[in-house]
Amino acid sequence: MTKVYLAIDQGTTSSRAILFDQNGNSLFTAQKEFRQIFPHPGWVEHDPEEIWQSVLDVCHQVVAQADKDGLKIAGIGITNQRETTLVWDRTTGQPVYNAIVWQDRRTADICAGLTAQGAAAEIEQCTGLVVDPYFSASKIAWILDNVDGARQRAESGELVFGTVETFLIWRLTEGRTHISDATNAARTSLLNISSGDWDEGMCALFNVPMQMLPDVVDCAGDLGRVTHLFGRELPILSAVGDQQSAAVGQACLTPGAIKSTYGTGCFVILNTGDKIVRSSNRLLSTVAWQLDGQRIYALEGSIFIAGAVIQWLRDGLHLLSSASDSEQMAAGLTGNDGLYMVPAFTGLGAPWWNAEARGAIYGLTRDTGPAQLARAALESVAYQTADLFDAMALDGVQPVRLRVDGGMAANDWLMQFLSDVLDMPVDRPRILETTALGAAMFAGLADGAHASLDDMAASWQQDRQFTPAMADDKRRLIKAGWSEAIMKTRLRVD
Q: What pTM was estimated for this model as a whole?
């Protein structure tokens, strides 16, 4: 019987389950979307039960397919949207509030207060993160202070916290296991990334009771067992945040290797080895992975809106029938006609970190139509990526080529424009589902199917390379236009 791994990829807009063989080949995929809840401007929530049910549904489909095809599932790997925050009852497992999504900006005042009291430098030194609503700690505090009785219950040990992988492992193991892998723990603003432990001082600053927190564990190992849900016992062999998982799936295993994932948001991760690189330009220092208690670190730039801007054009404005239409629409134009879209729907991420910024479009004329807007939306993703690379350059880091993945990486026009704007080769892998692949690779490592990460990385294959073809003067001109658009957007709120 062929041995395979079940990768659960719990994302911002959907949950997927994918079967991978030991060589990293995708055999079967199931996917289910769930609701995005917007109670107020800048707020984004998910129903935890909808997340859970979507995961169960796709897993049942994949398990049934494995049985049909005579495949033996050796274990489960989990990767997930990071920073999204859940608080639930330790006894019943019932959430006390909706999951507050990483995009949510409701805690801007909490973060501004910490900055005003001079805590920003201490937080950044300890956690590697800037003070921003993006991360989990302020979200936990908000739930405790806005749900009746929640803070008292948390302080008495009745409530627990987790990011999405913690919640899923809790549910999959029927409440027997309360853990967080090091990559997700590093996105809370509560983990000391040097020691790998929860930091008492950070918990005090954010007013989060330490008894709520899960145990911090490696990304691969025996992380719990699913005993009843799928008609058989299955070990949970890995857990890793989605962007770090994509870096592993992209074989970015040596210092200097860099990838960018284009999903709902865009996330650039640069491997810095066993050294924490501190940015002077508001990039993030974070944990890339942890194995056998040893941490590998990364420098990260986070963009809140990438694929979400195309989703908005499709679902909000109904200018597209499908996301893929944007490629042909953009390719049909000879230029951007001076049109720039800044998709700051939930604020600006790195390197600006402006929670109050909101989206804007500059250069509208009577000739502006759906095609121009689609092109401006796609261009905004490349421009935001270029901002991150410019920040890295100022930090003394000069990547020479980029690996890309995620749904938007299938857009040839965007990938070519990205290569042009960055002025460097862009490599697209044969397998775009690198986020799920990374979780499967870690599961295979824990299972003994692979001797090392390097062994697993040997399976990486290139689909296509995009090389720069834009003249330098044009590149400078269009980037200058983008910089002006960003400046105007920031001036509206600064």
A: 0.86
